[in-house]
Design brief:
The complex is a heterodimer of chains A (about 425) and B (about 325).
Chain A lengths: L4 E10 L4 E10 L2 E6 L9 E4 L4 E4 L1 E6 L12 H10 L2 E6 L10 H8 L8 E4 L15 H6 L5 E2 L8 H14 L2 E4 L12 E2 L2 H6 L3 E2 L1 H22 L4 E4 L5 H12 L4 E5 L1 H5 L21 H12 L5 E2 L8 H4 L16 H12 L4 H15 L16 E11 L18 E11 L2 E5 L2
Parallel strand pairs in A: 1-4, 1-5, 6-7, 7-8, 9-10, 10-13, 11-12, 13-14, 14-15
Antiparallel strand pairs in A: 1-2, 2-3, 5-16, 16-17, 17-18
Helix pairs in contact in A: 4-6, 6-7, 7-9
Chain B lengths: L13 H16 L2 H4 L7 E6 L4 H13 L3 E6 L11 H10 L4 E6 L4 H9 L3 E6 L5 H14 L16 E5 L6 H9 L6 E5 L9 H5 L8 E4 L3 H9 L5 E5 L14 H8 L3 H7 L4 E3 L12 H5 L5 H19 L5
Parallel strand pairs in B: 1-2, 1-3, 3-4, 5-6, 5-8, 6-7, 8-9
Classes of the chains: A alpha/beta (about 425), B alpha/beta (about 325).
The complex binds zinc ion.
């Protein structure tokens, strides 16, 4: 067991308890033992001076692709979680589109086993349907008992309305979310970017706004009907929302009291489809980078609370896979190490979102969303999953030094604000800025 | 970016356009024997993932007239190994001594990828629905020549008072994209014409990239009206017709009889609305679909000259690509 550690003189920020002031924090047996005004706690065997640093509950990313099993040349659970630690994340939720698809208790156990050497707390959302084929539900109850924090076919939608109904009903009985990749794939065949003037200029076929919003609207209607017919209260979580239209539907559903949550990805509030001007496959993702009006809508939805959390959709790909014709390149970018830097630059500096709100989006809310009650806060007794960062530090991201196995980031060389200093997972230091 | 490359007309400086037009005229005036020394012993690879008789032959003859050695790698030959990436094919050609690659590819943006990964000058001979820059330059030279404007120079006012109506399948046409981006920057008024399925409204927003363009670009869906407006231009007008690309229409409902009724360039339509219009078509044409056979052959037609100017323009592009000086 790690020895006790005393973190001194940090500026503690914990939206869960409303804390926003200088504190010392004592860690004992991997948990938060005490949190007090500076100078009260006795000196410990090990101390960390955090003067000038903000201390927050470690970030929780409910949407990452770790590529293991099956595509370990892109990423492994060990490398992906080290990249997560470097980005200040202490819990990540692995998506199921591995090879084979994570749709069984056996594969879930394998993934969550200590033998995978995860550097931080690892959770998983297994597939909503067997093989993510959209036809037969996986065994939700068994998977929930084995540790599933939700179900998703991410990478593709649950397209069939009857199957989606059944998925929402089954997950509602377990109190877990169905996390939906909202894309009407019947409308996006052959499309490789956002529909609009830029796609027209580049001669590429574009995905319409409606391909996303139609599915969101359909799913929200299912929630209404299920509440009425089944007397259940399903939880729909909409992944990586990228359009004003889908956000408006979610906002309305929330006002109507339905249990809908959603996430936004840093790239969607930072970049637009103009980033594809030179066919940069490192800016190719799904949902695609949208127009400026949609980017502004994502920011507005973050500011007004429609968006519940920031999730990176960290999607590593090998360089040779991205070095192909744009339409043939796989979707996705790495994102764990740039999330805080972009959130602070765009949301905090450019749009005045308070630091505490950033922590809400990156720790408090995602913890609540997947029901991690002793993480995502600084309460005594909670896991000592902590991040120390310098909120005003400006720096430049270099993909080359990323801890991820893959370097497919459109932010290589981009300015960042707010630098991770130290990340602790259950009291252990898992990342320290060099 | 490789200075000898030509990937797109988007952002191509007018000074470069001027240089290429002057170079074309200069090479054209040279004695064939002298011309054949310009690229003597230089190696040029034609990498064609899409068949094209016209463009391929044009580039090949241009290269040969300059004395260069050419090699053709096409999807019809066995040279493009099954599954080999574009990058690796480019690296192989470079290792074999190619100094410049002319690329035609069905994927938009492929020339950017090839240039980035093999670091050779790349000439884009047409990529997907994106660009066909040498076509835009040859069309420009054809327009200047036929309207008795100076074809050896180009500047921001070269096409002042000229209106060009581009009609047809603009959505799928790299020729239309290239011309609609280049010609307004030389002062031309460009009217895009076609049904919404083939010409979405946001085409304007997508193509009007240069705020400094002295000309302008607009959509007028009524072909007769577009021709009438063009006819009123003080320094000449052009009816540029596009091929209906049936292979790209998958999923689109297009009533061909209706299209012919509204958008085919017929003798009568031309005579009624714009009798002096210069008629252009990048080829290959479908006579009787987008253009009536008689119109293609009439005195207004510049279709054959476009081909001739294509050869001339491509000599200049190759000389520029390989850094030779005439
Ligand atoms: Zn997704």
């Amino acid at each position: 067991m790690t020895p006790d550690l005393l973190i001194r003189n940090a500026h503690a920020l914990d939206p869960a308890t409303g804390l926003d002031s200088p504190r010392d924090i004592l860690i004992h047996h991997g948990r938060i033992a005490a949190i007090e005004l500076p100078g009260i706690l006795p000196a410990g065997p090990e101390e960390l001076d955090a003067t000038g640093l903000t201390l927050a509950p470690g970030f929780i990313d409910i949407h990452v692709h770790l590529r293991e099993p099956g595509q370990t040349y892109k990423e492994t659970i060990a490398t992906g979680t080290r990249a997560a630690a470097a980005g200040g994340f202490t819990t990540v939720v692995a998506m199921p589109n591995t090879l084979p698809v994570n749709d069984s208790v056996a594969s879930l156990h394998w993934m969550l086993s200590p033998a995978r050497n995860a550097a931080v707390n690892l959770c998983a959302m297994p597939a909503a349907t067997l093989g993510s084929l959209g036809e037969t539900l996986s065994d939700y109850e068994a998977l929930a008992n084995a540790g599933a924090v939700g179900f998703t076919d991410d990478g593709k939608p649950v397209l069939d309305s009857d199957i989606m109904w059944a998925a929402l009903v089954a997950s509602a009985r377990l109190g877990l979310p169905i996390s939906q990749h909202a894309e009407d794939t019947r409308l996006t065949g052959g499309c490789s970017m956002n529909f609009g003037p830029v796609a027209f200029r580049l001669g590429l076929r574009g995905m319409t706004i409606e391909a996303e919003s139609n599915i969101v609207e359909r799913d929200i209607q299912l929630l209404r009907d299920i509440e009425k017919v089944e007397g259940l209260r399903p939880h729909l979580h909409v992944q990586h929302v990228s359009t004003a239209k889908a956000l408006a539907a979610i906002r309305l559903a929330k006002q109507q009291g339905l249990h809908v949550t959603c996430e936004a990805a840093p790239h969607h509030f930072t970049l637009t489809d103009e980033a594809l001007e030179h066919f940069d496959t490192n800016a190719k993702m799904n949902p695609p980078l949208r127009a400026e009006s949609d980017r502004q809508a994502v920011i507005a939805a973050i500011l007004d609370g429609t968006v519940d959390c920031i999730a990176t959709d960290h999607a590593p790909h090998a360089a040779y896979e991205k070095e192909v014709e744009f339409e043939r390149a796989p979707n996705g970018i790495t994102g764990l190490e740039t999330a805080l830097g972009l959130a602070l630059r765009i949301l905090h500096r450019d749009h005045g979102l308070p630091l505490a709100k950033i922590v809400t989006l990156m720790s408090t809310n995602p913890a609540q969303l997947i029901k991690l009650h002793d993480r995502g806060n600084l309460k005594p007794g909670s896991h000592a999953d902590l991040v120390l960062f310098a909120p005003a530090a400006a720096w430049t991201y270099s993909a080359e030094v990323s801890l991820s196995k893959s370097k497919n980031s459109p932010f290589d060389g981009a300015p960042m604000l707010g630098q991770i200093h130290t990340t602790l997972s259950e009291g252990r230091i898992v990342h320290r800025a060099s | 970016m490789n200075l000898g490359s030509l990937l797109t007309v988007n952002g191509l400086p007018i000074a470069e356009v001027a240089h290429l037009l002057a170079l074309t005229t200069q090479i054209e005036k040279m004695h064939p024997g002298e011309r054949a020394k310009l690229l003597q012993g230089r190696r040029i690879a034609l990498l064609f993932y899409e068949s094209s008789t016209r463009t391929r032959t044009s580039f090949e003859l241009a290269a040969k007239s300059l004395g260069a050695t050419t090699t053709l790698v096409s999807d019809k030959s066995s040279s493009i190994e099954k599954g080999e990436s574009l990058k690796d094919t480019g690296l192989t050609l470079r290792a074999l001594g190619a100094e410049c690659i002319i690329l035609r590819h069905p994927a938009s943006g492929a020339p950017e990828l090839l240039e980035r990964t093999c670091n050779l000058p790349v000439l884009n001979a047409g990529d997907g629905m994106h660009q066909h820059p040498s076509q835009a330059l040859l069309d420009l030279r054809t327009i200047l020549t036929r309207l008795n404007l100076d074809a050896a120079t180009a500047h921001a006012k070269s096409l002042d008072g000229v209106t060009i109506v581009i009609t047809g399948d603009i959505r799928h046409s790299r020729v239309a994209r290239s011309n609609a981006m280049l010609l307004p920057r030389l002062g031309a008024r460009v009217i895009l014409c076609g049904p919404p399925e083939l010409l979405p409204q946001h085409a304007i927003e997508g193509l009007a990239t240069d705020p400094a363009a002295t000309g302008w670009i607009e959509i007028i869906r009524d072909f007769d009206l577009a021709l009438t407006l063009a006819h009123a231009a003080p320094h000449g007008c052009v009816a540029m017709m596009l091929r209906i690309q049936r292979e790209r229409l998958a999923g689109l409902e297009l009533d061909l009889a209706d299209y012919i009724a509204h958008y085919q360039l017929t003798t009568e339509r031309l005579a009624t609305h714009a009798p002096n219009a210069l008629v252009m078509h990048p080829g290959p044409m479908i006579r009787g679909l987008e253009i009536a056979g008689e119109v293609a052959d009439c005195p207004n037609s510049a279709i054959e000259q476009q081909v001739t100017h294509g050869l001339a323009i491509r000599t200049a592009l190759l000389v520029r690509a390989l850094g030779a000086t005439p």
